[in-house]
Amino acid sequence: MKSVLFTRFFILLPWILIVIIMLDVDTRKPAPPLTPRPYFSPYAVGRGGARLPLRRGGPAHGTQKRNQSRPQPQPEPQLPTIYAITPTYSRPVQKAELTRLANTFRQVAQLHWILVEDAAARSELVSRFLARAGLPSTHLHVPTPRRYKRPGLPRATEQRNAGLAWLRQRHQHQRAQPGVLFFADDDNTYSLELFQEMRTTRKVSVWPVGLVGGRRYERPLVENGKVVGWYTGWRADRPFAIDMAGFAVSLQVILSNPKAVFKRRGSQPGMQESDFLKQITTVEELEPKANNCTKVLVWHTRTEKVNLANEPKYRLDTVKIEV
Description:
The chain crosses the membrane at residues 6-25. This protein is of the alpha/beta class and 323 residues long. Helix content is 30%, strand content 20%.
């Protein structure tokens, strides 16, 4: 039994010696030096070695100060809002006319559409149309008195005045933002360039109008940047021989002249523009646009009269379709 134990001891002895030697070598290795953590003092050394407490925020405070000293970029000036007043009335082509106009207005930045119906109440057709138009808009209505609906009398007077009244009421108790007023009839065609031109109006700006007055165009005559006369085919003696689509007015001018409206009494056919502009400006103050009034950017196109000779008196279709 003893011989067995001695045999096993001598077999394990070399391995025990190897383990002891390895442990002895490992303990003799020098320990790595300890790296001290950086110490941030809450004090700064001032003149004469005085210790001064650091301000809260540390080095970032100086950076903030430097950033504050840099000139800040100036905000871009606010784009003037164009207020487009559009009188409209019920007729077979009304929705088609408004659709064409809305397609133009949607491409104009910062535009507010004031749509005024010649009616005693808002129509469902126009209400639905505006709800789907995707435009900042105001829907008004005012009927034209029957006595003023005779041929030869000025049209849309009450509707334009309703738009003016809404504008003045909207800005009555607040500082008026930069804006321009434009009378956009629904039977005209407008170039997008026209809205860029009118947006810089300081008081009253003017430009040519195509397909009006029995001519290919009418326009203000300009010399040295000033309006000196009118190229027109109808009543050149008018104080402002211009179409309703041929001028824009600064919002500030509208608000500064609260009594300036389109008149019924004493106003002759074709004189509405002159009667209105006389209340707010003079010919000498007009601002020519469209390359000194040499470019046509708006056309008095008018939709062709619709032929409904075959339309049945009573609805025969089983489906009611809005046109």
